[in-house]
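Translate structure to sequence.
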């Protein structure tokens, strides 16, 4: 029974398509890192795939899913050295680094977004893909919570509190 519960817990925190952490698992791991490094600078990076609707329209949803898997593999490979990587949904990924600085994060993001990336969902199909990225830096900690509006669920609202006491909120 304990083994079954542990397996269910793991599955509840894993994205079924990519094998990365899902939103639930990613937020849990971020909270653990914040607890581990409470006085360190953190970075929350959002990577958003460019033009994925076109990929699905041009190559079909099945191939689009294979492209998403390749995206996840490359995001994981590039950013997992010191961060938490998870799939937010669709073509959006979150990376969280604890104990970092803006120069390191900037270099990491620029290196990844400028690198040519190609997925090969089928033998005779090559699909180039790119990402846009945004980052929020914090001096003390970041709180990441789901936020529900009247019409849809906003993936996250990010609130960062700096040591100067300012509160920054964005969605």
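Result:
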């Amino acid at each position: 029974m304990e083994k079954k519960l542990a397996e269910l817990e793991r599955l509840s925190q894993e994205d079924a398509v990519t094998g990365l952490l899902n939103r639930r698992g990613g937020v849990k791991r971020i909270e653990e890192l914040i607890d581990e490094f409470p006085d360190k600078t953190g970075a929350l990076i959002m990577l958003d795939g460019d033009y994925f609707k076109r990929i699905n329209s041009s190559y079909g949803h099945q191939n689009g899913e294979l492209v998403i898997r390749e995206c996840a593999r490359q995001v994981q490979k590039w950013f997992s050295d010191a961060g938490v990587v998870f799939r937010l949904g669709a073509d959006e990924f979150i990376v969280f680094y604890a104990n970092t600085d803006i120069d390191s994060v900037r270099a990491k993001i620029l290196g990844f977004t400028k690198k040519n990336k190609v997925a090969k969902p089928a033998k005779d199909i090559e699909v180039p893909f790119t990402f846009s990225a945004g980052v929020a830096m914090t001096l003390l900690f970041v709180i990441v919570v789901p936020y529900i509006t009247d019409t849809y669920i906003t993936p996250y609202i990010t609130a960062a509190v700096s040591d100067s006491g300012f509160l920054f909120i964005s969605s």
